[in-house]
## 1
Amino acid sequence: QVQLVESGGGLAQPGGSLRLSCAASGNIYHILRMGWYRQTPGNQRELVAVFTTSGSTNYADSVRGRFTISRGNAENTVYLQMNSLKPEDTGVYYCNVLVGISYWGKGTLVTVSA
């Protein structure tokens, strides 16, 4: 079993910033992929930013240049620095880790509004 604990969501104004954190614990001996997805109102869950097996990063076109994914000193922790936030970034952000089986966090709400 793998547990994911997310934090850092909240309310931001357009143009503002937020930082999300995710820490994984449990059976995480070989992480294949770890990162962030989101579900915005009326849409399906979509990839935001992830680290792949090779250590490279993938970003959604809609966030590239504004969001940055990074790792903590331990590979089981990832962060998402979100800058220049837009109202359309509003949604629930989920941490995901793939270790053969895909695990999801409970999600953290991000609201971008004036």
## 2
Amino acid sequence: VQLVESGGDFVQPGGSLRLSCAASGSIRSINVMGWYRQAPGKQRELVASRNYGGSTSYIDSVKGRFTISRDNAKNMLYLQMSALKPEDTAVYYCRYFDFVREYWGQGTQVTVSS
């Protein structure tokens, strides 16, 4: 499975961005996909995930501001981010997990600053 993220950018506080992750290869129908982020000097953390059944989860710091969605027909994963804060600055990674295999994208940089 190959994952390619896009959509990262430089944005001012309060702004919005939409990240996209294009998945290709031998994708199994039962899987979980998610967005992780890693800020400089910090550990990578799970931001949001969505499983094949549509269940979602978010870390507390992004609830109400970020929305994860999937287009299974197109094998796309999205993260709509709004009301961005400087502490959202990080490299954002897409992850695929089908309970046997795990794959990561190369990451896309999101910088929130005035």
## 3
Amino acid sequence: VQLVESGGGLGQPGGSLRLSCAASGFTFSTYAMSWFRQAPGKERELVARIFSAGRSTNYADSVKGRFTISRDNAKNTVYLQMNSLKPDDTAVYYCNADGNGRVYWGQGTQVTVSS
């Protein structure tokens, strides 16, 4: 099983970044997919989740209206479009797969928001 995140880096306040997570080794379409983040000195927190069919999503209050999670089951990929970035969005972002009694994590990608 692999979850490989990409798209992190340095973003400007008010700017945008798009994260991708390419999955392999499991039946992607049957898993809920999520993005979590962990800032220095803080606990890992759920940012957004999308369920297997892609019709239902959940967001942390801190990112509602700014971030959008989506998935392409044909490409085994989940995305996180991050707009109106804030310095508080600085964290390592982790891709998560949850389903069929199993949980998988990616290695994480650093997002830094700074001018």
